[in-house]
Amino acid sequence: MRIAAACLSTVLSVMALPVWADNPACQYRAAEIQNQIDYARERGNVHKQSGLERALTQVQQHCKDEDLLRDAQEAIREQQEEIQERMEEIAQQTRKGDTDKVRKLEQKLERDRIELEQLREELNELQALGAM
């Protein structure tokens, strides 16, 4: 059964190649997913592997660099909005004098900023791969 699944995956990969061959960011994304599949397989995590194989098939069949770029830009916008809302919450709690709540919100804000930086790095990587 495993051999059949591996063969099917390989056949689907080859069949889908022309669809996304001109999309280097999609190729990169597919390679990332394949690495995760290999890791899950090595660890015997069948459910994770199965989900990742479905994701890989979707990337191979439907991925376009423009879509990845648009999605990355949208994620950045959403994260920026989250940061703005968090800052407004901090200001409100500061006015109330709730220092414990302010401290917790500032910690969340720092995590949000780190995530924003990671999203920006991902966008830069996509742009560097020619996803423009």
Descriptive overview:
- The chain contains 5 helices and no strands.
- The longest helix has 32 residues, at 65-96.
- Helix 1 (2-20) packs parallel to helix 3.
- With 132 residues, it is mainly α.
- Mean pLDDT is 87; it is low at 4-8.
- The chain has helices spanning 2-20, 24-42, 46-62, 65-96, 99-128.
- The radius of gyration is 20 Å and the shape is elongated.
- It starts with a helix and ends with a helix.
- The chain has 2 domains: 2-63; 66-128.
How would the blueprint of this fold be written?
Layout: H1 2-20, H2 24-42, H3 46-62, H4 65-96, H5 99-128
Helix pairs in contact: 1-3, 2-3, 4-5
Brief overview:
The chain has 132 residues and is mostly helical.
Tag the structure with descriptive keywords.
DUF1090; signal; coiled coil; 132 residues; DUF1090 domain-containing protein; elongated; 5 helices; 2 domains; single chain; mainly alpha
Number of domains: 2
Task: Estimate the strand proportion.
Answer: under 5%
Radius of gyration: 20 Å
Series of secondary-structure elements, N-terminal to C-terminal: HHHHH
- Helical element count? 5
Biggest sheet details: none
Kindly state the percentage of residues in helix: over 70%
Structural class, judged by helices and strands?
mainly alpha
Mean pLDDT: 87
